[in-house]
Every structure is written in structure tokens, then in C-alpha cells.
Please model this.
Amino acid sequence: MKTHTTDREADFSLVHVCNAPRSLVFKAFSNADALNEWWGPVETNNSVISLDFRPGGIFHFSMEAGGHVSYGRFLFHQIIPDELLEFTNAFADEKAQVVKPPFDLDFPLEIFYRIVFTEEKGKTTLTLTGYPVDATPEEAAGFRSIRGSMDQGFSATFGQLSRFLEKQGI
Amino acid sequence: MIAYIFAIKCLHIMEIRRDVFQAIADPTRRQIIEMLMKQPLNLNTIAENFDVSRQAVSLHVKILAECGLVIITQQGRERYCEAQPDKLNEVAAWVEHCRRFWTTQFKSLDKYLHQVQTNKKSKK
Model:
């Protein structure tokens, strides 16, 4: 299937076309048995611990490699069946509390993802966008107070940055 | 004035964490970085491009500076802001990591979808 990057309004975006109808693809994200089959890094053995598929609900999963277990979670935001899925993704502990990523690489604590599902001729296009989540609730609250009428969320374009980075040969 | 007090309060709170991801977590800050990548600008010029107060923009620029994405230099009465491209490598590394991760996730999803659909057909 074709995967290519786009120049959309987000920090990170990826478009992917699945050779399956939209309802089936959405079910792969919303059903614990399905997630157990396909979700998780290829380097680890992944298991679904729990899935509470509703806004505010949590998908908690484990990733095991060489006797070492780490955990991850989704915290679901907006859900429109067969159309839209929003969640924040983070590393977690065994109680599904957010923990720092176990990388040397500098990495955001939490990433907000939005996946838009569209279907054409039996094929489903997934448009994924993601950006790092604001560091602290205090900061977010502080900015909301002084931001006034500014739009929140995806109001900025980051295309320029990606073009710039490409030019740098990164 | 209220905005100013908020700004002062926020600055205090936000000394907790400073990294490039915090810098770009906010859409206004992303826009400021994009503007500054084209050319260095003084604070007033940046502020003119936004609906929010000058104080709010100033706060965003201060955070960008603390995260190392922007350098502020005083030239007479003006404060010039300049983007620091090297620091953006951290963002590039993160974006690349996400891309690799999701590309493999989608491959795994395809495999699963293929299996499910093949099983359905064979059952019929």
C-alpha cells in the first residue's frame, strides 16, 4: 500500500491507503482483539491490557522485549465512528500513568494524534497528523487566559519548517 | 495589565521544563518560528502579525529563546529575534522517529486487514 508524507498543517503528518473498507479499518483501532493483532512496535511483543474506547477512556498496552516490559497508553479525545479518531499517546507505567519516554533521544512526553478516515472505492485513506502536547496544564491555562480570540489547535502551518529542514539535508 | 500579570505568573511556572518540544507545542510559537526562519525580526513586527497582545507574543518569544530556538539581540531600542536552525534538528529527529514508527504500524495494520479479509472470504 502507498505511504507518503504530506505538507499539511501539523508537525508531523503521514497519509496511508489501506486496501479495506473504512468500517473495517476503524474497527482495527477500536476493538481490543484487533489491536492485539497489529498494534505496537515491531521490536517488542505487544499485548492489550485494557481498552476503554470512548472520549476520556484509555487504551493501555504492554511491550515486552528480552524480559523487559514497558507500557504505553492512548487517552482518547474526540471519536466519530468510521470517520475520526483523536488521542494522545505516551509511554506509561503498569497503572497507565504517563511516564517519560525511555529514549536517549529528546522526545515529547505526550503526542496528540488525529486520524481522519475516508473511503473511496473500497479503499480507506488514513490521514494522520501529530504534534507534541503542551508541557504543563499550568502553561496551557496561562496561555488560554492571554491568548484572547486566537484559534487553538491546528492553526499554524508547519510546512515551511519541513521544507526548511529538507533544504538543510536533514 | 491582567495579561501582563498572567505573563509574569506563567513565566514563573514555566521554568519547570524547557525543551524544543515545549517550544513547538504551541501554534503561535510555531508561527513565530516560521516567520523568523525567513528573516530576523524585531518584537513589534512579530506582534503586528498576531491578534494577541504584544505581551503574549513577547512571552512566546521568551519561551522560544529559553528553548534555544531563538536568539534575541538588543540593537539600540529594538530587540531583534533570530531563529536558531541547529536546534530544530531535535524536532527533525522526532518527526523522523514518528514517521518510521507509524510507517511500520501501518504495514502491520495492512497485514492484519489482509488476514481478516482473506479469512472472511474463505469462510463463505
